[in-house]
Design brief:
87 residues; mainly alpha; 6 helices; 76% helix; 0% strand; globular
Length: 87
């Protein structure tokens, strides 16, 4: 909607919703490595919504095995991982 530069800026400032959308836009543009870098700080914290967003991107890029590997620890932890702010 013409706000791409603002989304990128806010993503760089740590705004989660903008980071998630910026990563999606980068992935759509074939810039998968950059998209993963945007989400990496959030995923590194162990936060389920970030891991879920990254896994969804990986799957959409045809990298299902990586998505499974990323989410497996959360599945093995059961509800404990989701209680960190996930759905």
């Amino acid at each position: 909607m013409g706000h791409t530069e603002e989304v990128e800026f806010q993503a760089g400032c740590g705004e989660w919703f903008c980071a998630r959308e910026w990563a999606r836009l980068l992935g759509d543009r074939g810039r998968q490595a950059e998209a993963s870098e945007v989400l990496a700080p959030y995923v590194a914290t162990g936060w389920w919504p970030a891991a879920q967003a990254q896994a969804e991107l990986l799957e959409s890029w045809g990298r299902a095995e990586e998505a499974i590997a990323l989410t497996r620890p959360y599945a093995e932890a059961g509800g404990r991982a989701r209680s960190r702010g996930g759905r």
